[in-house]
Amino acid sequence: MSGTKSFGEWLRHRRRELDLTQEELARQVGCARISIRKIEADQMRPSKQLAELLIKHLRVPAQEAGNFMRLARGGASASSVETFESPDNLPHPISSFIGREREIAEVKRLIGNSRLVTLTGAGGCGKTRLAIEVAGQILDGFPGGAWFVGFAPLSNSTLVHQTIASALRVREDPSRPLIETLCAYLHSKHLLLLFDNCEHLIEECAQVADTLLQACPQLQILVTSREALRIEGEEQYYVPCLSLPEGGVDEPIERLKRSEAVRLFVERAARVQPTFGLTFENSSPVVQICQRLDGMPLAIELAAARVKLLNVGHIAERLDDRFNLLTSGSRSALPRHQTLRATMDWSYDLLAGNTRVLYRRLSVFSGGFTQDAAQAVCSDDVFEGVEILGELSRLVDRSIVEVIQAGDGERYRMLETIRQYARERLKESGEERQVRDRHLRYYMDWTEAVEPRLRGPGQIAWWDRIETEHDNIRAALDWSLDGGDKQLGLRLAGAAFWFWKPRSYWKEGLKWLKETLAVDPQGRSSQARAKALVVAGNMAMEMYTADPVDDWYEQSLKIWRDMGNKWWASYTLLLMGWHRILVNEAASARFLFEESVAFARQAQDAWIMGYALRGLGSVIERFDYAAARPILEESLLHSQTAGDRWVLADALKQLGTLALGQAEYAEAAALGEQSLRLFREMGDKEFKTETLGLLALAALGQGDFKRAEGFCRESMLLAKSIGYNSQIGVDLLNSAFIAEAEGQPRRSAILLAAGEALLNSMGTTRSMWPWIRADYDQCIPSVQAQLGDNEFGTATAEGRVMTPEQAINYALEGFKED
């Protein structure tokens, strides 16, 4: 600082070193009332008091302080430099501190209520930076200052007392124990000690903290550790990772910037590549990086440092190999913070033998686990079930496993980075196959046990439970295809269907079913294969894929007939009937539905009875509304008995379409509203969008155009989001009917052509829906008469060549705003 000309110049220089704006500097030093701009411009003469305040918060080394005091007085001779003892020894990181407003406020509150506060959390989550930031902000409340005691370099617990004394500049008295000297020195002082990185010396740190707090009534201690000290009076605060974008990659740039993780990545990336900024083009991979790294500050900083060599897309792609990618951290950082692997190694090396074994075995769980699952999957000759709970508790204490409240009980999880590290250790141990086999068996057994509950009362809660375990089901299926038991994977996929379908995991569910069928070692004879074939056909049929659905159904039906399984034979025949309707063979479908009903009556099961009758009624409805009504009403009664909300909602919807076909629009609307409420509660998107289409036509029939548009818009957007193209085709036709009723014939003609073109491209036509066919047959001549042949031909030609996306946009643009 010898070249500094003024206090303002020094302040500008120091602010740039700390990468602070003038507003941030004013906030940090707690003097927003003072114009930092005027001081920097030497338009305000700083007082000694202000200089001391700035020096304290900017953490100037003590030997330089006298020079700055001289500048504050307006410039004394160099020979009159005075000494100045710093009120703290807190580190002053060069990089800026990002976010953490809630955490800072909570830690401050805890310090206000307790003399011992311990910050715990996973390695790399930012405990030390948070503690230093809090200590700096509350420094004014401690006349004796705040003193940083770093234990990370120590490997010998006997040096703990000496390290504290050195930090406080206390000289050892050979005539008495050092702890007594420390107690005597601190007895009358009101100061804050910051014990950093205590986990590897936890017993000694706990003892010294307890001794000092009892002997020194005004002393307060702030601790960072992966494990709490567990002494009387301790307040523990678990430091979470940084916040992630709430809406994922689809949020606008300005909202993404509110995420602490994204802000940290962007700022650190700009340090190594000054032109880097968050843009529309790079926002998706940046968010993916932050999400896949769980918002862990250390991992994000290491990833941002790679921007100098790789673009963010390549960084995101390579995170499966994150421990080799995320290296070369700051040379000034602790060795274990210079690479992500070193941080993980540090935690692992601190664990005892059995705790290490459980740590690596838990890595087979994806998305969390329960105590029951941990006991079943991780138990073997090494562990007894009770032992596992004790070891699990130790992993929770060491911030390796987190406890999550879920419903009536607890779930546990590891951050993905920690889990990937443990997975590497599991592979090295030679135990991977046995543990993953147990994981596959557990989730196959669990899902099969749950399967019947997915079709009855309480099914929504069970769908939610499977949603919670969905990542584990995926991991189990992965293993069945990659070395595990193929038959178990086939059984698991068949059972999971009853969750995949109502929660609209169509593409994913079909993928798993096809892959497990392809490696089924039992050929064409097993019950598991028969189930997988029929449910795969169901999903392929719903998605209008090119898969051999009829062949799958025929193979499945043969197995069920040979086994004498009435329930599954009925279900398979039912789906075969629906497939006939979808390919415009409604007449032949009736015989399949009638046989399905016959098998259902033999099975004496209300669920399959209601569902089979619903199919029969729907095909008869296409030819005779009056004959269909008693069949559909009986279907509704059986569905109510079964207690399956989905089948009940479906039955109500089918009765609603019957009422619609008979121009009973008020009844159709009432039944549709009941059905929609149930589908909304269940989260079923496919049938929700169909019901919205029904309600649109019911509202149109009642002359409520605005309400009809609202239903049609919601149905179309939902169908688009899940890729339900046949319903998009229906919604385009419904939009055309609404446009014609509102006096927009050209718009109606374009939408009629676009909707029919989309349906024809899928191998189906408007004949699938008799209640739509009637409106179509009335709409076409009306629009043609209003436009004339030439304009009608031009409009329909325009609609036929529209892509589905163009047609959807055209339809939505024409709806009136609410």
Cα-to-Cα separation, first versus last residue: 65 Å
Low-confidence stretches: 75-84, 329-337
Calculate the mean pLDDT score and round it.
84
CATH homologous superfamily assignment of the domain at 644-814: Tetratricopeptide repeat domain
Category from helices, strands and their pairing? mainly alpha
Q: Give the number of DSSP strands.
A: 7
Structure in words:
- This protein has 818 residues and is mainly α.
- Among the domains are: 7-80, 434 Repressor (Amino-terminal Domain) (Orthogonal Bundle), CATH 1.10.260; 101-238, P-loop containing nucleotide triphosphate hydrolases (Rossmann fold, 3-Layer(aba) Sandwich); 248-341, no CATH class; 351-430, Winged helix-like DNA-binding domain superfamily/Winged helix DNA-binding domain (Arc Repressor Mutant, subunit A, Orthogonal Bundle), CATH 1.10.10; 644-814, Serine Threonine Protein Phosphatase 5, Tetratricopeptide repeat (Alpha Horseshoe).
- It has a five-stranded parallel sheet, sandwiched between helices. Strands 6-7 form a two-stranded antiparallel sheet.
- A hairpin with a 2-residue loop joins β6 and β7 (409-413).
- The chain is elongated and about 105 Å long.
- Residues 75-84 and 329-337 have low confidence and may be disordered.
Key structural traits:
single chain, 818 residues, mainly alpha, 434 Repressor (Amino-terminal Domain), Rossmann fold, five-stranded parallel sheet, two-stranded antiparallel ribbon, 40 helices, 7 strands
